[in-house]
């Protein structure tokens, strides 16, 4: 039992995905690895040293951190820079961009209704 230091990025706190450099297999912590009895929610760094890629069998050192898919990147104290945009997850950014696009289309169509 040891307390972890708090100086971690949000993406790290949300357990980043790791991708196998050899075969492209993606380890997603929220899914775990049912083939090897790894419970969902297990961070890649918490996997046993003996864990290997379930597809091609290479060791953990062949995996690269690809970041979390469901958390903002960067440190928590940086999130208020960039007009708050950094606070958003990639999904939220997509939603915003497509939402604005949709609003623009609706506005454009409403111009026809004026006549
Ligand atoms: Zn692999």
Provide structural commentary.
The chain has 115 residues and is of the alpha+beta class. The protein has a domain at 17-67: Rubrerythrin, domain 2. It is built from 2 helices and 3 strands, in the order αβββα. It has helices at residues 10-13, 90-112, and strands at residues 17-20, 26-27, 63-67. A 3-stranded antiparallel β-sheet has the order 2-1-3, with no helix packed on it. The longest helix is centred in the last third of the chain and has 23 residues, at 90-112. The termini are far apart. The model has no long low-confidence stretch (mean pLDDT 82). The structure holds zinc ion. Residues 20, 22-23, 25, 53, 55-56, 58 line the site of zinc ion.
How would you sum up this structure in a few lines?
The chain contains two helices and three strands.
As residue ranges, the low-confidence spans are: none
| CATH class annotation of the domain at 17-67 | Mainly Beta
Task: Give the H and E element order.
Answer: HEEEH
Structural class: alpha+beta
How would you write the strand order of the largest sheet?
Answer: 2-1-3
> Helix count?
2
Report the sheet with the most strands, covering strand number, pairing sense and barrel closure: 3 strands, antiparallel
Bound ligands, named by name, code or SMILES: zinc ion
- CATH topology name of the domain at 17-67: Rubrerythrin, domain 2
Query: Architecture of the domain at 17-67, according to CATH?
Result: Single Sheet
Mean pLDDT metric = 82
Computed over alpha carbons, the radius of gyration is: 20 Å
Globular, elongated, flat, extended or rod-shaped: what is the shape? elongated
Beta-strand portion reads 5-15%
The termini sit apart by: 72 Å
């Amino acid at each position: 039992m040891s307390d972890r230091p708090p100086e971690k990025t949000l993406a790290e706190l949300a357990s980043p995905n790791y991708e196998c450099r050899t075969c492209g297999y993606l380890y997603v912590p929220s899914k775990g690895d049912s083939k090897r009895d790894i419970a969902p929610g297990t961070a890649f760094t918490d996997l046993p040293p003996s864990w290997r890629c379930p597809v091609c069998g290479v060791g953990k050192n062949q995996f690269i951190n690809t970041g979390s898919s469901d958390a903002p990147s960067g440190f928590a104290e940086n999130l208020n820079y960039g007009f708050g945009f950094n606070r958003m997850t990639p999904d939220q950014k997509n939603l915003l961009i497509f939402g604005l696009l949709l609003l623009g289309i609706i506005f454009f169509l409403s111009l026809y209704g004026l006549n």
